[in-house]
Amino acid sequence: YADTLLDHAKTLWDFGIKNQGKYSQSVPAGGFYESYNVTDENCWGSLWLYKVTGEQKYLDEAKKWYDPAPDWGMSWDDVIIGNQILMYNLTGDAQYLPPIEGTFKEWLPGGSVPYTPKGLAFRLQW
After folding, report:
1. Which of 25, 35, 52, 81 is deepest in the core (most CB within 10 A)?
2. Residue 52 parent element (H or E)
3. Which of 6, 45, 37 shows the shortest CA–CA distance to 20?
C-alpha cells in the first residue's frame, strides 16, 4: 500500500510542478483560505519526496523554491519554516541554519511577534 501512495505522490508532484497555479484559483476558498503563492508548497512537496526516495531531482527542485527569509508563521498557506528545518535536516548544510534562527528570533520574546500578557505569541486576530 505504501508503494501505491508513493506512486500517487510522485504523480501529483509531477502534475503540480508542470502545472503551476494556486489551488484557490480553481477551488472557491471563500476569502478565508486563499493561497498567496506556490513556492513554499513546491519546496515542501519536493523535500518530502526527497526524504522518502533519496532521488536528487526532488532536492534540486526544492532548492529552486527554497525561501531563506524569516517566516511569518506556519499555516495552511505558509510552510516556509517547515521547509527551512527540513532542508537543514536533510542536507546538514550549515547555510540553511541561519534562516531557521532568523525565524525563531522573530518569534521568541524580544522579536517582532507580540505576546499576550500570559505569554502566548500572538501574531494577529482574524
Report:
1. 81
2. helix 39-53
3. 37
